[in-house]
Amino acid sequence: MLSVQDAVEHMLDKIQAPTKTTTIAIEQAVDRVLAAPVQSTVNVPSYNNSAMDGFGYRAQDMEENTSLRCVGESLAGHPFTGELSAGECIRIMTGAQVPASVDTVVPQENTQTLEPNLIQINSVPKPGANIRLLGEELQEGDTVYPTGHRLTPVDIGMLASLGVAQVKVFMPLKVAVFSTGDELVLPGQAKQDFQIYDSNRYVLHAMLERMGFEVLNLGLVADDPALIEATFRDAAKQADAIVCSGGVSVGDADYTKDVINKIGEVGFWKVAMKPGKPFAFGHIENTWFFGLPGNPVSATVTLMQLAEPALRKLSGEQYTPALTMSAVAGEALRKRPGRADFQRGILRYEKGENRVYSAGPQGSGMLSSLVQGNCLICLSAEQGSVEAGDTVRVQLLQAPVK
Ligand SMILES: Nc1nc2c(c(=O)[nH]1)N[C@H]1C(S)=C(S)[C@@H](COP(=O)(O)OP(=O)(O)OC[C@H]3O[C@@H](n4cnc5c(N)ncnc54)[C@H](O)[C@@H]3O)O[C@H]1N2
Ligand code: MOO
User: Fold this and answer.
1) pTM recorded for the entire structure
2) Average pLDDT for residues 221-226, to the nearest whole number?
């Protein structure tokens, strides 16, 4: 059985970034992946400007006298065009251009108006203080974003601040999703005792959309090899990747793998992880296939741990492993060596440290463990049980918004 790391590396090795690109307005570009680096064509700031509302003057004048004659003003958008002489200052506002003859700004709360246009500086700042210098944040030609960067809301603001109105991005990844299983019915429909509601497709659809992909939802497919084959063929024609759940184990009605082997190729099957062992990866011609186990927790966890890195690379995004953090186990956690375990946990900040507790029963059919939990406790394949007080790694279930 492959380790989780080997499985991810195998998929990342096979999968290449897309080639189709488009140019779009930055307002439409959140969650899209850059297909070309963005270089700054401006200096940021593009002119020396004041960081405070106050008075601008020449530091050398402070040796003589700390009261200055105010000879003009510089407002944001309305610069002062004159030149300061000895003993003079100007009123200046935050963001306003600092004229060449000014080298220091004193905040107005550290000054006092002695007479109209005669300003006393009560607390003299260091020479050069309170001025944001041209190019101190970014210089013309600096690479701000590399190819493969997925744009966040803040990035859209950064692009706007650089005067960039459009960006070249990869075409969104198209991912087909469906569920297999004769026991499945749609939410809202009448159900018999031996049936369950399809939940995987709803979780997977929502998670894939949040990853920035275009989801092609192909619905429910019965445990019938001919129907499954037809659905795969249809999906492969339309999508870059297929994510389906169920039918990847060894049961009498588990046809998914056999069908892929018939019309495509299974690259690997089974990963040493819990939940999610029977995960399958392969392709049908140019469409990648991710066969997730049917158990709801297994489907969700394998999407996050295995399929997501591969799908992100396929969408053009630069792969960066998910962030994990350390936490102290607040209680003992049972585990057998052999498979990497992703236990659902509740992470809390208590008494000055991150502490993690079990989210309760860990059955891979129990979606409620993912509802109660806010993190996955990532335990290595080799290790056994965890004692209370041991340090473990955890991965937040809801990635923080950058
Ligand atoms: N003899 C063995 N049996 C099983 C093994 C094994 O190694 N040997 N592995 C177990 C593990 S681990 C998992 S996980 C499951 C995976 O099975 P499948 O991927 O074939 O999934 P199904 O059998 O179709 O379903 C499993 C379970 O999940 C429920 N399910 C399926 N689809 C959905 C859905 N869309 N929404 C909600 N729930 C779903 C289904 O009803 C079953 O209860 O196999 C074990 N067996
Ligand atoms: O490993 Mo299965 O995916 O636990 O239920």
Assistant:
1) 0.91
2) 95
Same domain (yes/no): 204, 279: yes
Distance 230 CA to ligand 2 centre (A): 27
CB 335 within 8 A of CB 386: yes
Q: Is the CB of 248 under 6 A from ligand 1?
A: yes
SS (H, E, C) 281-339: EEEECCEEEEEECCCHHHHHHHHHHHHHHHHHHHCCCCCCCCCCEEEEECCCECCCCCC
Q: Which atom of ligand 2 lies nearest, measured to the CA of 365? A: 5
Does the C-beta of 196 come closer than 6 Å to ligand 1?
A: yes
Residue identifier of the C-alpha nearest atom 4 of ligand 1:
249
In this prediction, residue 249 has a pLDDT band, given cuts at 50, 70 and 90, of: confident
- Distance (Å, whole) CA 311 – CA 302: 12
- Pairing, β 166-170 against β 67-74: unpaired
Q: Give the integer Cα–Cα distance in Å for 24 and 152.
A: 15
Query: Quick one: CA torsion of 128, 133, 136, 138, rounded to 10 degrees?
Result: 180
DSSP characters for 212-249? TPEEEEEEEE-S-HHHHHHHHHHHHHH-SEEEEES--S
Confidence category of residue 211, pLDDT binned at 50, 70, 90: very high
Q: What are phi and psi of 278, to 5 degrees?
A: -80, 20
Q: Return the amino acid letter for 343.
A: Q
- pLDDT score of 400: 57
Ligand 2 touching residue 275 (CB < 6 A):
yes
Question: Which CATH number fits the domain that encloses residue 294?
Answer: 3.40.980.10
The whole-number average pLDDT for the span 27-38 is: 97
Residues facing 375 on adjacent strands? 345, 396
CATH number for 160: 3.90.105.10
The boundaries of the domain holding residue 330 are 325-396
Q: How are beta strands 67-74 and 118-121 bridged, if at all?
A: antiparallel
Provide the mean pLDDT of the chain. Answer: 96
The residue-averaged pLDDT of 268-272 equals 96
